[in-house]
């Protein structure tokens, strides 16, 4: 999805859009906490346990939406006047409506020309992305924040129960929902400003990570149940903007350096390899760490401190990324050409109007209260 959005928006403006896309995950996580409380009341209905009803209904909705996306999402934009050619099985699938038409399509074509000039690629292009050092700090950034996010999502009720053992299953499900509501609020607040100051992605990434660290420490060392629960709300708020900012920074760096192929490959590698962090937090921490899961005041303390450690690794990676970019730069791997150039398809990386604007930050200009 991070790559798909670059077909319609410049990389410097994808943070807000990726964030809006990720709000679906946060709404889902929040709703699951509320809905699962209802599913627990369905135990025995039709001879099924509550969670079996949840899996069946969620699976059915996922299948329906998955097939509908074949014609729901618009295809990549085409130059004005060009008609898509559909062959093979695609001709039997209803065609989606174009995202842009008329004057909007013309302006988009002139301003984001690079999207309309497809560049051929091969496995050497993928290897160039894989061995580009710029990829690995981004992977480590993603590794830390996603690992903590999945760990909290999987074990939110376990952590809350450790702070207050008297809570029922339904109460635990209801208390997990506000964590992800805080996550959603932070996405909507922070990601638009990270786009406006897109040369400072590391700052907009690191501050929320520090909030997560503070929340984990409060959850670990808090003296009573509700302050410790407040720490989980801080973790949710800090988690929100970090993944969209990491992916939008990936778009910025690899669009300029490797073009469209670089964005697609880097986005896949960052999200794919970075998700290994979720394996660590899911299977090695909390209930998977026998000595750390023993009941008592220090229950899960080591697990939360490990998550603090990998978050520190994410901050360090963002700082290293910033310093190395300032030192080594981010020059394209192929020559740059103007969007008005007659260079044949597949040669060079296009410097269109949007790419030139990306060289400068928008700052706080043209906000609604400054117009």
Can you walk through the features of this model?
The structure is a single chain. This protein is mostly helical. The chain is 65% helix and 2% strand. The chain has helices at residues 2-5, 14-40, 50-72, 102-111, 123-130, 135-163, 169-196, 201-221, 225-239, 242-274, 276-284, 301-328, 353-357, and strands at residues 336-338, 349-351. The chain has a two-stranded parallel sheet. It is globular, with a radius of gyration of 23 Å. The two termini are 32 Å apart. The model is unreliable at 341-346 (pLDDT under 50).
Order of helices and strands: HHHHHHHHHHHHEEH
The global form is: globular
N-C termini distance: 32 Å
Average pLDDT metric: 82
Q: Based on DSSP secondary structure assignment, what is the total number of beta strands?
A: 2
CA-atom Rg in angstroms: 23 Å
**Uncertain residue ranges:** 341-346
Helix content percent band = 55-70%
Percent of sequence in beta strands: under 5%
Number of H/I helices: 13
Structural class call reads mainly alpha
Most strands sheet: 2 strands, parallel
- The main sheet orders its strands as 1-2
């Amino acid at each position: 999805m991070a790559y798909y959005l670059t077909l319609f928006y410049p990389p410097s403006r994808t943070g807000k859009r990726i964030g809006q896309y990720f709000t679906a995950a946060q709404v889902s996580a929040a709703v699951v906490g509320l809905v699962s409380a209802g599913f627990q009341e369905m135990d025995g209905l039709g001879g099924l346990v509550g969670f079996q009803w949840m899996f069946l209904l969620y699976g059915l909705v996922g299948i329906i939406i998955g097939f509908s996306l074949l014609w729901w999402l618009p295809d990549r934009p085409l130059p004005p006047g060009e008609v898509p050619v559909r062959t093979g099985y695609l001709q039997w699938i209803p065609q989606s409506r174009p995202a842009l038409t008329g004057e909007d399509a013309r302006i988009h074509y002139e301003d984001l020309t690079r999207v309309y000039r497809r560049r051929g690629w091969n496995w050497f292009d993928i290897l160039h992305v894989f061995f580009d050092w710029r990829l690995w700090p981004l992977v480590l950034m993603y590794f830390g924040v996603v690992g903590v996010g999945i760990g909290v999502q999987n074990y939110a009720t376990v952590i809350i129960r450790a702070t207050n053992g008297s809570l029922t299953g339904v109460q635990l499900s209801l208390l997990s929902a506000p964590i992800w509501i805080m996550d959603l609020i932070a996405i909507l607040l922070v990601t638009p400003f990270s786009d406006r100051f897109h040369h400072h992605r590391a700052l907009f990434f690191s501050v929320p990570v520090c909030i997560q660290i503070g929340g984990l420490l409060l959850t670990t060392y808090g003296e009573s149940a509700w302050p410790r629960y407040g720490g989980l709300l801080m973790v949710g708020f800090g988690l929100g903007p970090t993944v969209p900012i990491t992916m939008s920074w990936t778009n910025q760096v690899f669009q300029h350096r490797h073009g469209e192929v670089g964005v697609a490959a880097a986005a896949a590698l960052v999200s794919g390899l970075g998700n290994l962090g979720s394996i660590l937090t899911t299977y090695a921490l909390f209930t998977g760490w026998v000595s750390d899961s023993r009941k008592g005041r220090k229950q899960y303390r080591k697990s939360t401190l490990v998550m603090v450690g990998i978050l520190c690794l994410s901050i360090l990676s963002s700082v290293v990324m910033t310093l190395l970019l300032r030192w080594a730069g981010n020059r394209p791997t192929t020559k740059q050409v103007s969007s008005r150039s007659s260079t044949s398809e597949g040669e060079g990386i296009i410097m269109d109007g949007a790419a030139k604007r990306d060289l400068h930050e928008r700052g706080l200009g043209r906000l609604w209260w400054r117009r």
